[in-house]
Design a protein that fits this description.
The protein is an all-alpha fold and about 240 residues long. Helices cover about 80% and strands about 0% of the residues. It has 2 domains: about 130 residues, no CATH class; about 90 residues, no CATH class.
């Protein structure tokens, strides 16, 4: 049990610790809104482009437009409610989840340009999630080994190996797609890159958790406060 706690405490590699401790701000919501506005622009361009109409799955494209609108609205509501401190721990879930949702929407945009958009999207989601799970498991093993040996250089040294491998594979697939003029390879490369982003998003999860942690009670402060109150009462009685 102690080892599990130590593993959770040290799960984030040193490279990403600074980012994992960042607080959410209004900019977090605005960044997501800006990203989805950009995605909407791409989707609208696809829907009016004569060149794209022949290959584009219009039904999927329309659904992505509605989903993007809904996501923007959700983040606008979150931006307003974020000002209330009591609601922050609930509201910050919105930009985190919608950021991950954005990865799948980007994948869906890519799938809409393939010959079998629905089946390719399903395969892409399964593939990216499988690679994400493998990445998390690899990091878990590295953390376990580091905790066991009390030597965290193991975790920090090898943590990026799998992530970098996915990124390189994604870039290679994009390059091959360009050379042989086959978009299927570009879509495969997209799946690899999205899996990379999913792993990185996992390292951002402590940013959400910190809002749900109970602040430790300062017993010394309460004793000090009670002492002052007692002195005041004595003076009042005199």
């Amino acid at each position: 049990m102690v080892q599990i706690k130590e593993m959770l405490k040290n799960f984030i590699p040193s490279t990403y610790k600074k980012v994992s401790r960042k607080s959410f701000t209004s900019k977090s919501f605005l960044s997501i809104i800006g990203a989805f506005v950009f995605i909407l622009g791409i989707l609208f361009l696809f829907s009016i482009s004569l060149d794209m109409k022949e290959t584009l799955n219009t039904s999927l494209n329309d659904k992505l437009i509605y989903l993007s609108y809904g996501t923007i609205c959700a983040n606008l509501v979150g931006l307003v409610l974020f000002r209330k401190e009591k609601l922050q721990k609930f509201v910050i879930i919105i930009p985190y989840i919608t950021c991950i949702l954005m990865f799948y929407i980007i994948m869906a945009i890519g799938a809409s340009m393939t010959d079998n958009p629905v089946s390719d999207l399903k395969l892409g989601m399964v593939g990216s999630n499988l690679l994400w799970i493998i990445g998390v498991l690899i990091n878990t093993v590295l953390v376990w080994k580091s905790v066991k040996t009390s030597h965290f250089k193991i975790r920090d040294k090898y943590a990026n190996y799998f992530i970098n491998s996915l990124s390189i594979a994604g870039i290679i697939f994009f390059f091959v797609s360009k050379v042989i003029n086959n978009f299927t390879y570009a879509y495969t490369g997209m799946v690899f890159l999205i899996a990379t982003l999913q792993i990185l998003a996992t390292f951002h999860f402590p940013r959400v958790l910190r809002y749900w942690k109970k602040e430790p009670k300062n017993e010394n402060a309460s004793i000090y406060g009670n002492s002052i109150e007692m002195i005041k009462n004595k003076r009042t009685k005199k």
